[in-house]
Amino acid sequence: MNLSYFIAKRISFQQAGGFSTTIHKIAVGSLAVGLAVSILAFMVLGGFQKTVADKVYGFTGHYQVQRFTMSNSFEETPFSLNSEFAQQSSNLPFIEKTQSFAHKAALIKGEEEVEGVLMKGVGGDFDAQSFSKYLVSGRILDIPEEGTSNEVMISQVIANKLMLEAGDKITLYFVQNPPRFRRVEVVGIFQTYLENFDEEILIGELQTIRNLNGWTKDQIGGLEIFVNEKPSFELVKSMEKILDLDLKLIDSQDKFLEIFDWLKLLDTNVYVFIGLIGFVAIFNMAAILFILIMERTQMIGLLKALGAKNQQIRRIFFWNGIRILLRGLLIGNLIGLGLGFLQDQFRIIPLDPASYYMNYVPIEWNWPVFIIINIGVSILTALVLWIPVLVISRVEPIQSIRFD
Fold this sequence. Notes:
2 domains; 15 helices; 12 strands; two-stranded antiparallel sheet; alpha+beta; six-stranded mixed barrel
């Protein structure tokens, strides 16, 4: 058996209630708490970024295809579903689905109030199942193959302003020449907690906008593109190859730049936070190992007097530190992953949706990141462990044996 490892086992955690045991427990606890907090921080950060990004993508797609126009109007210039891109997009393996849409400005007249909105018309390719998670009350609007059902969905924010509920009738006034109106039924109320959508968007039928604008049945304002891969430059180039000359491709991250820049800014805050925690935890490990070496000064002197080399004695305390590290990693992972699991399953910690865009702390299970954190902590701690053990070479056998 390795002599250094054998002695390290004998001096680790063996004095019940003794000073060494207390110091070892403090070292393990410090490392475990630092690791657990780091894991939880990445869980929450990843969950928050993913939840907000998914809400944006769920409402607009990862990309949109629209016709080139010099106008800054909310309303799009129409193009045909018979365009080359609309026909060939289904051949691209990374495109999960496409949804046709168009926008039109309108005024909602309730019983006493009037509110300006942007009506988003959706067609038969609308993914009702994915959108249903945002539904607060009522149901998804019905989109018939022929004609219109005169049904709409409004946000909870607009419903509160106009004191509306699912089942109420409202009048939509459309700004055009001549002005036109439609009497519709509110069949559903949704809530995303994102101001960009909840304060201005109303979901209606694409056919209604076609009728108001005089479009043909194959004309749309744009296509929302949903991809099953992480948006990248290669994806954009692949789509641009089949893009018609009069169409443009819009990245949702560019369209909602303020949201995605804010999410990226959160990365910096978390990295600084974790860096400080890691520094404190690793510094504690070095300081505690210094204390253990000072406590074992007589043992070091005795081993040197018996012929042990400095390298052998260093390995004793290095192995001692590794045992502390492994226990800290085990306990830290159990605490971090355990708390993350409880929050993910039972949503114990709530949030104010008005401030955080969601009503509970989200959790993302990113196993590669967890593995990298554990490897990083292990490497840094192992390197730091060599700093205090260098003190051993300065210990003189005669003085250390007499040390009291």
